[in-house]
Design goal:
Number of helices: 12
CATH topology of the largest domain: Rossmann fold
CATH architecture of the largest domain: 3-Layer(aba) Sandwich
Number of domains: 2
CATH class of the largest domain: Alpha Beta
Structural class: alpha/beta
Order of helices and strands: EEEHEEHEHHHEHEHEEHEHEEHEHH
Strand order of the largest sheet: 6-7-8-3-9-10
Radius of gyration: 23 Å
Length: 351
């Protein structure tokens, strides 16, 4: 069995949920320069579930994870992890969780094996247990051939796998991954996802993942909370979220930037039209059936089209439907993003 046996059960939690967040708010700084990173968010994560926080940079994902892992104190609200209050019982919470940051935390001068041995020592593991666990994780993460090389010689994907191993060296009940594949190429991300799937299958660990990659959330998470500007705008399974928008969207871009809302709305079968960034988005039941009448109507009106595209329900479309703007993986409010990082670095000054 990969990643070792399922850890022995601890005392039952005080709640049916592995994680419970109620009306959580976080404000960094003081007026007039205060930044509200979280605005009254609530959600629950069931034991063994893979739950995703999906949103652009600066949306509040890192602040949420920082609070749940006791690195930052909330301004208001309550967060319970494995039945423990993260503010009042922070030390015990830390014993029960694992965490992998979006930035590299491994010591580049040490070898992969040494990094894992240090982590095991900090968790209070006995030397004999530590040796077995480290060896097993090096094999599971396909790092054994590089175990005794300095981490500074590792590729980005190897570093991520090592940091995941560090995060689970003590067999935590709950694992937090904050943007774990940030900076990896598509192949590196796909490989990391496979390790996560195997880890969950073999250990039953509860996973809370923050990401701004739509595909990552769709592939890995059983439920997703879409976060935007510090608020949760929707929660559900990927299928449930996609079903909310219903049908297809035909995206039409005229070459001369003409206004097409009235023209498209008059076509039978078009359920609604929205304009965004020079494009016109016609909602309909089946995009394939609507393309010919749309093209014909535009041609009769003397309007030349630069492009016509059919878009099936996706998390990208869900985000647009809920927020009124397109999802861009690189976007984010610079002030909020900076405040999140500074708050995490300095222990999250409370207000």
């Amino acid at each position: 069995m990969l990643f070792g046996a399922v850890p022995a059960p601890r005392s039952p939690p005080l709640s049916e949920f592995a994680i419970s967040v109620q009306r959580l708010t976080k404000v960094y700084g003081e007026p007039p320069k205060a930044v509200q990173a979280l605005d009254d968010i609530s959600f629950d994560v069931r034991p063994g579930e893979a739950f995703g926080l999906l949103g652009p940079n600066g949306a509040g994902k890192t602040t949420t994870i920082s609070i749940l892992t006791t690195l930052v104190r909330p301004t208001h609200g309550q967060a319970i992890v494995d039945g423990l209050d993260v503010t009042r019982e922070a030390e015990e919470v830390r014993r029960r969780i694992g965490l992998a940051f979006q930035v590299s935390t491994a010591d580049g001068e040490l070898t992969g094996r040494e990094n894992l041995e240090v982590a095991a020592g900090l968790e209070g593991m006995a030397r004999s247990e530590s040796r077995r666990r480290v060896q097993q994780l090096l094999e599971d993460m396909q790092l054994l051939p590089y175990a005794d090389r300095p981490v500074k010689t590792y590729s980005g994907g190897m570093r991520r796998r090592l940091e995941l191993a560090v995060g689970v060296v003590h067999s935590p009940k709950i694992l937090f991954l904050d943007e774990p594949t940030l900076g990896l190429d598509p192949q590196g991300r796909a490989g990391f996802w496979e390790f996560i799937r195997r880890l969950r299958k073999d250990t039953g660990v509860t996973l809370l993942l923050s990401t701004h990659y739509l595909e990552e959330a769709d592939q890995l998470c059983e439920r997703i909370a879409i976060v935007d500007h510090g608020r949760i705008v929707a929660i559900g399974t990927p299928a449930e979220l996609k079903a909310r928008i219903g049908g297809d969207t035909v995206v039409v871009r005229p070459t001369q930037g003409q206004e097409l809302t009235a023209l498209l709305s008059a076509i039978p079968g078009v359920q609604g039209v929205t304009a965004l960034d020079g494009q016109f988005r016609a909602k309909c039941a089946r995009g394939e059936a609507m393309v010919p009448p749309i093209v014909t109507a535009c041609a009769k009106a003397g309007i030349e089209l630069e492009s016509v595209e059919i878009r099936k329900p996706s998390l990208d479309e869900v985000f647009l439907e809920l927020t009124g703007r397109a999802y861009r993986e690189e976007e984010g409010d610079a002030a909020s993003f900076f405040a999140e990082r500074m708050g995490q670095m300095h222990g999250g000054g409370n207000r």
